Amino acid sequence: MICFRMQSYSKKRERNGAGAKNRHGIKTLVVRARPGHPSQGLLNAGGTVFSCALGRGGITASKREGDGGTPLAAMRILSGYFRQDHFFGRRTRLKMTPIDSALGWCEVPQDRNYNRPVRLPYAASHEHMLRDDRLYDACLVLDWNISPRLRGRGSAIFFHLARPGFTPTQGCVAVTAKVMARLLPYLSDGTVLKVVR
Questions:
Q1: Distance between CA atoms of residues 188 and 25, nearest Å
Q2: Are 120 and 128 in contact (CB under 8 A)?
């Protein structure tokens, strides 16, 4: 089991936006852009900082479908998906559902299932959750534009696995598989991923 040291300056840590991290879990993950690299970020988990990838559009306060921006927002982690055949570090308090070949995610603002999981085949444009590039081997759903859903405000904003070199996402936050496996035991549906500037 991974043990995290608690720092004694809680007020300073709160001011810097880092949530408490201990055996009871992580309350807040704070993400900000890496200086000089708007599509890459730094994720602070209770004082431990990890590299992450952000959307190709950087951090945006006015997220729109297809803009590639990562929302400037505090987003609760709702649940997750995983590939049973690829990702094994999934011990967590989150509800995790296995990904199969029939799982998709609708990305058409006019569709009644916009920004919702759908079963494939599906008529409207959608994302396949069973990906060859393994980005969704561990994929956590963030509550961006979930309830209420607003047309065109963005869909499929996830916390998932990064490509080599932390190349840009379509608006999600992404970390390495090793970091995801390290964080998962401390995450719950009470954890908030907070993207800041």
A1: 7
A2: yes
